[in-house]
């Protein structure tokens, strides 16, 4: 259980997530009875909503807000937000205390035989498309940034292959995401086997917790693949960490970035990465669409538009990410970042889906520093000044009829969660 800064909070706060082989109700009942924990300090329950939320305090100052959500009847997730600590010493004391609570819960409900890894969705801060290549792909220059909207994949040797969905976009996933060998998590298993791991992909059960909009140009499927690679490697104790980037590149152009995360420049098909070392956190608002867009269709439309304009799409200058944008990202200068945001695919995406231009205009009216299509779309990305500004944009877009999600930079790539 690793605590990180909670960038959603207006005060100093930490957040960590844990997973249990249990129902949400059982974990709730234990947390709602701190006298049963066997700890040296006993917090007071100040509010409880069964089976999803418990708020606990120490002396009315230090507080833990615990959210519990069910993935299914055998797996649940617990998010703990800590605030009210006054200094570094009290912060470390709280972290240690909750690590002990986590171990207590594990001992009472069981750790389970699953391994969970997560990987970030992404936004393309900049995306330039060059020549159409002989292999059917395009040369690109992209600036990727990982987001706090993270896909999670639980893997388990269950004796048969299956894919289940949980999370905010579980319903859409059941309708539109394949649950057979076409899914990238299954293909990740094939790549792990190809690298020499003793794995029978047809014996692995996957549960995918979907937090990234489906077919939204935010690399949700690529994030699933990257998380599956990390989780399978850990489940098998295969020791393939150094070879996972090679496997990721075979799975798709965005998968290597999903594996590494942070902020990076992607060249070639997007898989040749150069990391940008920056600790700056940007706040974004993402407006998804009910209907997805096919990435190949968007590229095809861009080529058509270019040919109609007299451009030879097989002979174009090599695309580049502006140095000024890289400098602005390192400095965290959101105004300059907004000036250099660009996406060559936007003209094609809006040609295929004209209503996307209306959302871009709505983002501008809502106060976004810049609004544009994310990747191949149809999700629209709006850059905000800070957390409060992002929340304001979400509210204003909601009033205009465009449900949106506030998110922020994730500095971590694919990571083990248990």
Give an overview in words:
The protein is of the alpha+beta class. The protein has three domains: 106 residues, Alpha-D-Glucose-1,6-Bisphosphate, Chain A, domain 4 (2-Layer Sandwich); 120 residues, Ribosomal Protein S5, domain 2 (2-Layer Sandwich), CATH 3.30.230; 126 residues, 2-Layer Sandwich (Alpha-Beta Plaits). Helices cover 33% and strands 29% of the residues. It contains 13 helices and 18 strands. Strands 7, 8, 9, 10, 11, 12, 14 and 18 form an eight-stranded mixed β-sheet that branches. A hairpin with a 2-residue loop joins β5 and β6. α4 packs across α5 and α8 packs across α11. The N and C termini lie close together (8 Å). The mean pLDDT is 95.
Task: Please render the helix and strand layout as text.
Elements: E1 4-5, E2 13-20, H1 24-31, E3 44-49, E4 53-58, E5 62-72, E6 75-83, H2 88-109, E7 115-132, E8 138-157, E9 162-166, H3 170-176, H4 184-194, E10 204-209, H5 220-236, H6 244-251, H7 255-260, E11 263-267, E12 272-275, E13 283-287, H8 295-308, H9 323-331, H10 334-340, E14 342-343, H11 346-352, H12 355-365, E15 370-373, E16 380-384, H13 387-399, E17 405-408, E18 415-416
């Amino acid at each position: 259980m690793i605590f990180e800064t909670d960038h959603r909070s207006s005060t100093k706060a930490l957040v960590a997530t844990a997973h249990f082989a249990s129902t949400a109700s059982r974990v709730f009942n234990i947390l709602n009875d701190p006298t049963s924990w066997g700890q040296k300090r006993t917090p007071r329950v100040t509010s409880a909503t069964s089976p999803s939320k418990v708020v606990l305090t120490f002396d009315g100052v230090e507080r833990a807000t615990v959210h519990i959500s069910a993935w299914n009847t055998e797996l649940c997730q617990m998010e703990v937000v800590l605030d009210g600590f006054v200094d570094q010493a009290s912060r470390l004391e709280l972290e240690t205390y909750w690590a002990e609570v986590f171990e207590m819960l594990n001992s009472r409900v069981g750790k389970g035989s699953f391994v969970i890894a997560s990987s970030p969705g992404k936004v393309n801060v900049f995306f330039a498309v060059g020549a159409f290549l002989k292999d059917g792909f395009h040369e690109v220059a992209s600036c990727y940034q990982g987001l706090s909207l993270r896909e999670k994949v639980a893997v388990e040797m269950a004796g048969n292959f299956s894919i289940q969905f949980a999370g905010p976009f579980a319903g859409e996933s059941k309708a539109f995401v394949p649950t057979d060998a076409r899914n990238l998590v299954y293909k990740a298993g094939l790549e792990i086997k190809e690298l020499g791991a003793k794995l029978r992909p047809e014996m692995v059960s996957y549960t995918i917790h979907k937090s990234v909009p489906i077919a939204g140009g935010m690399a949700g499927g690529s994030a699933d693949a990257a998380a599956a690679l990390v989780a399978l490697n850990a489940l098998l104790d295969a020791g393939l960490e150094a070879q996972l980037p090679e496997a990721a590149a075979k799975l798709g152009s965005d998968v290597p970035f999903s594996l590494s995360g942070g902020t990076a420049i992607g060249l070639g098909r997007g898989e040749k990465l150069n990391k940008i070392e920056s600790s700056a956190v940007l706040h974004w608002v993402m407006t998804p669409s009910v209907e997805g867009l096919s990435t190949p269709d968007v590229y095809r439309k861009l080529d058509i538009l270019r040919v109609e304009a007299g451009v030879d799409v097989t002979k174009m200058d090599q695309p580049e990410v502006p140095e000024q944008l890289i400098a602005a990202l390192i400095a965290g200068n959101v105004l300059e970042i907004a000036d250099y945001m660009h996406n060559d695919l936007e003209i094609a995406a809006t040609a295929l889906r004209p209503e996307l231009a209306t959302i871009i205009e709505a983002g501008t009216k809502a106060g976004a520093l810049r609004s544009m299509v994310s990747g191949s779309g149809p999700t629209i990305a709006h850059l905000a000044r800070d957390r409060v500004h992002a929340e304001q944009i979400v509210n204003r877009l909601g009033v205009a009829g465009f449900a949106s999600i506030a998110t922020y930079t994730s500095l971590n790539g694919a990571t083990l969660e248990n």
